[in-house]
Model the fold of this input.
Amino acid sequence: MSILDSKFVKELSAVTALMYDKGWDERNGGNITVRIDAAEVENHLDTNNVLRVLPLAFDASKLAGEYFLVTGSGKYFKNVIDAPAENLGVIRVSSDGRSLDLLWGLENGAVPTSELPSHFMCHIARLAVDPEHRVVMHSHATHLLAMTFSHSLDERDFTRTLWQMCTECLVVFPDGVSIVPWLIPGTLEIGEATSAKMSANRLVIWPQHGIYGAGRDLDETFGLIETAEKAAEVYTYVQAQGGVRQTISDEDLQALADAFGVVAVPGYLNV
Ligand code: 2HA
Ligand code: ZN
Done:
């Protein structure tokens, strides 16, 4: 079956279109990497046919031999659905973790996302705590981005506000959100800071820039960012309506966590 008909290319094409439509990924904003099983890749590609070898600026040996579907550097989410082979690529990390084999896509000399160091470091961090982890997703989700200008950047405060804005939030991300300092995108430094947070939280905010999410598949990871973004949108309306008059009590949030069998970040609820 053609790789264009593969589940992984179809799903990534659909989700990039959706994220563009939501206004989260203007121009070349956002990037996504998906870890794919070798057996699934082999259904669609000759894995001995390496199209190009791309250097890697850091040691990714912990991901040696892993296959990823990635968005391309400078590519626009809005264009993926009509031209997947120009905007996406399938890569394999070399055995020494110092280069990538391109097996499909990234046509016309394109290269993987400029945020590949951050993505790979986050994959390593998440795989260490969840062997089923597969997806890292970065987006400029509008209301979350706006909140980083007006809200405290204390992780507990920020998480508590999001949990209070929609009842489902605590159930969807009981691990909360973490926040790195403002840093230059695309650098090893921002990758190290983001991945250090990723061991404990699947959502990491980049102030005045956007958000990183991690999960086991595209639906789950998109849903995670979507839920946090919805809470940030509600927060925006609440602020515009004059601010909070009543909210969900910490006792009720604890009862919610108990009812759904999730554990809130220790110390985040005053109970
Ligand atoms: O891919 O979003 O953070 C463009 C970006 C960089
Ligand atoms: Zn970005």
